[in-house]
Design a protein that fits this description.
The protein is α+β, with helices and mostly antiparallel strands. It is built from 3 helices and 4 strands. The chain has a 4-stranded antiparallel beta sheet with strand order 2-3-1-4. It comes from Chitinophaga chungangae.
């Protein structure tokens, strides 16, 4: 199994709106691609939240090919939607992991 992990530090000013947007719009759009079969959203604990909380979303897929297809065909537009909606009030980084 492949896990596509997105870690995002969110400004306190947009935190509640961002979480709602993720749950109601962004995550469902990613799952609707059919390339990921499940996800998990978490808030990191024991972090410096003075600039805002940090969240992770892990998307689960069976193959690296699904992940690469997502990157090529869907990721650019979906990432742009986040910037169009929230501007520079968040920072995200991405990692890919394989379950062993």
């Amino acid at each position: 199994m492949i896990i596509y992990n997105v870690t995002t530090k969110v400004s306190t000013l947009i935190k509640d709106r961002w979480v709602e947007w993720m749950k109601q719009e962004h995550i469902p759009e990613i799952i609707a691609t059919g390339l990921f079969h499940d996800y998990r959203m978490c808030r990191l604990l024991e972090q410096d939240d003075s600039d805002g909380p940090t969240f992770t979303v892990q998307y689960f897929t069976d193959t690296l090919e699904n992940y690469y297809t997502y990157l090529q065909e869907y990721a650019p537009a979906l990432r742009q939607q986040a910037f169009d909606t929230f501007g520079d009030q968040f920072v995200a980084f991405r990692t890919v992991m394989q379950v062993v």
